[in-house]
Amino acid sequence: xxxxxxxxxxxxxxxxxxxxxxxxxxxxxxxxxxxxxxxxxxxxxxxxxxxxxxxxxxxxxxxxxxxxxxxxxxxxxxxxxxxxxxxxxxxxxxxxxxxxxxxxxxxxxxxxxxxxxxxxxxxxxxxxxxxxxxxxxxxxxxxxxxxxxxxxxxxxxxxxxxxxxxxxxxxxxxxx
Length: 176
Prior knowledge:
Helix content is 72%, strand content 11%. It has 5 helices and 2 strands; from the N terminus they run αβαβααα. It has helices at 2-16, 41-46, 65-96, 98-131, 137-175, and strands at 23-32, 48-57. The two termini are 14 Å apart. The mean pLDDT is 84.
C-alpha cells in the first residue's frame, strides 16, 4: 500500500505541472429549427445548423497557486516515499524477529498439547472414579472444567502458531 501511495503521489506531482500549460476545448453543436414540422430531407437540411467552436485559455496570474500546488505535491511525494521506506524497514525488522516468534508459538503449542493430553487422561480417570463412587461430583466438575480449558488453550495455541507462520510467509512474499 505504501508503494502504491508513493506511485500515486509521484503521478499527482507530474499532473500538477499541467496547470502551466494552456487549456483548449472544442465545442460542436448541431441544431434543427423548430419551424420544420415535416420530415422532408431537403427542408431538414436547409433549416439545420452546425456550430463549431474552439477556445484556448491560459491563466496569466493565479496568485502563485500553481507553483504552490507543485511544491505541495512534491512534499507529498517525499512524504509518501519516506512512508514507503519506513514501512519496508518495519517489515524487514518484523521478518528478522519472526524466528523467535515462531519458536515461542511452537513451544506454547507443544506445552499446551502436553497439558491437554495429561488433562484428558485425568478426565478419563475421573469418569471411572465417578462411576465407581470414589469421586465427588464437585471434584469431577472441577476436573472436567480444567479439561475443557485445556482444549481451548490447545486450540488457541494452534491458531496462534498458524497465524504467526502464515503472517511470516505473507511478509516474505511481500518484501520481495
